[in-house]
């Protein structure tokens, strides 16, 4: 069954600990943590200190999505803060094999992410060495954007390239009850959802709806 990873970017930052507890109770499978440096994307979020402070609020895996130009200087801090998976962008300004081995050195799951218009085939050389691909279905940088359908054909294409390898496909951006079913059908294993979960009145219902792939 598809897993749901609520993105805390859409949470109430004044009550982050409580928000994490709420999504845990509501049936989330992972916590998606969006880190932005104001350079790779035109927005800033937070650093490892915040991740360390929210770590005691849940047992769920922390999936850290680094939207930064130079991830290498940050990886150790996020590992120590409690990350379970670290995802870097293929479009980052650093050597990808170096970043993959750095994350592996710490024994964490390795993710590679691509923007909506980056070629899926650019991921091929790295597929044997990574645990997940985070397919962006919006331009990274902001929550609450509209899903770009181009992501659907990319998920399907990626699925073919992955073949029998054990690489999970996550999709990130504009996920709601209208867009989730198509993502699941295309082959997504994990749905990252910020606004749809955190702006809903009932987190549990929102998560259930995404998991069931029910159109409403
Ligand atoms: C965008 C982030 C996403 C974002 C998703 O740069 O990577 O994780 O928070 O937000 P929604 O679900 O609101 O599109
Ligand atoms: Zn993200």
Description:
With about 220 residues, this protein is an alpha/beta fold. It has one domain (about 5-215): TIM Barrel. Helix content is about 35%, strand content about 20%. It contains 8 helices and 8 strands; from the N terminus they run βαβαβαβαββαβαβαα. It has helices at about 15-25, 50-55, 70-80, 95-105, 150-160, 180-185, 195-200, 205-210, and strands at about 5, 30-35, 60-65, 85-90, 110-115, 130-135, 170, 190-195. It has an 8-stranded parallel sheet with strand order 1-8-7-6-5-4-3-2. α2 links the parallel β2 (about 30-35) and β3 (about 60-65). α2 runs parallel beside α3 (about 70-80) and α3 runs parallel beside α4 (about 95-105). The model has no long low-confidence stretch (mean pLDDT about 95). Bound molecules: D-xylitol-5-phosphate and zinc ion. D-xylitol-5-phosphate binds next to β2, β3, β8 and α7.
Entry keywords:
single chain; 216 residues; alpha/beta; TIM Barrel; eight-stranded parallel beta sheet; 8 helices; binds D-xylitol-5-phosphate; binds zinc ion
**How many helices?**
8
CATH topology: TIM Barrel
Largest sheet: 8 strands, parallel
Instruction: Report the bound ligands by name, code or SMILES.
Output: D-xylitol-5-phosphate, zinc ion
Along the chain, the helix and strand elements come as EHEHEHEHEEHEHEHH
Structural class designation: alpha/beta
Q: CATH homologous superfamily, by name?
A: Aldolase class I
Strand content: 15-25%
Relative helix content: 25-40%
What is the arithmetic mean of pLDDT?
97
The tally of strands reads 8
Shape: globular
Could you name the ranges where pLDDT drops below 50 across 5 or more consecutive residues? Answer: none
- For the record, give the distance between the C-alpha atoms at the N and C termini, rounded to a whole number: 20 Å
The radius of gyration computed from the alpha-carbon positions, rounded to a whole number of angstroms, is 16 Å
